[in-house]
Amino acid sequence: MGAYLRPAALNDALKALADHRPAILAGGTDHFPARASQPRDEDILDITALPGLRAITEAPDYWRIPCLATWTDLIEADLPPLFDGLRAAAGQIGGVQVQNAGTLCGNLCNASPAADGIPNLLALDAVVELASFSGTRLLPVHGFVLGNRSTACRPDEMVLALRIPRPALPSRGVFGKLGARRYLVISIVMVAATAQFHPDGRIAAARVAIGACGAVACRLPGLEAALSGKRPDPALVDPAHLDPITPIDDVRATAAYRREAAMEMLRRAVSALGAQ
To answer: Whole-model pTM?
Structure first.
């Protein structure tokens, strides 16, 4: 059985990472189920006693979601409509017990292709704060997730927080998830989108991301370009916009079904962006 560490100071946690490379534990809602099926001895670094890493805060240029902020914290936070998609995803993650314990940063670090948080973070243009004993660095989410269960986080680093840039214009976010049932289900297809709006209702800039249709969630630049300067209209969604995705056949759905479902979900997301 490995060592269990629960430091009360960030420097102590970073020193432990530098010296021992333990597995980081926050909510544990991904970690414990994985270890139940593949038990192994490992050192654990429990970060839940670290101070100042739970409250969601606002800076002049961005919102900061620290590594201990739970899904419930996101649901209950006073955040603008830009976060409506992320808030909707938070309300569909597992059950209430998982929402109370699980963290958005943990969901990101787990890097599952079906992680509900990641398409929203892409749509929000999120930036990852990484900390180690030797310093800190910032990395865009699209450069952080490298593949299925693979990230750019070094063994001596931990994700300290996520930064969500403040848009220049009024913005809204939406999220849609398809599964075999409404709750307690792994996604078959997910769509997240945000848009900034001109005063006349035209889209100034859009960010659209899709998940569970490849090893890594990805943005759809063709659709984003098609939406720019237009009012939200589902008819703008074209099959060619799905070129970046690489869906597979698995026990939840076929690749063909995922592609067809993705088209419908994208149309619904664009329509939802136009709802006041």
So the answer is: 0.95
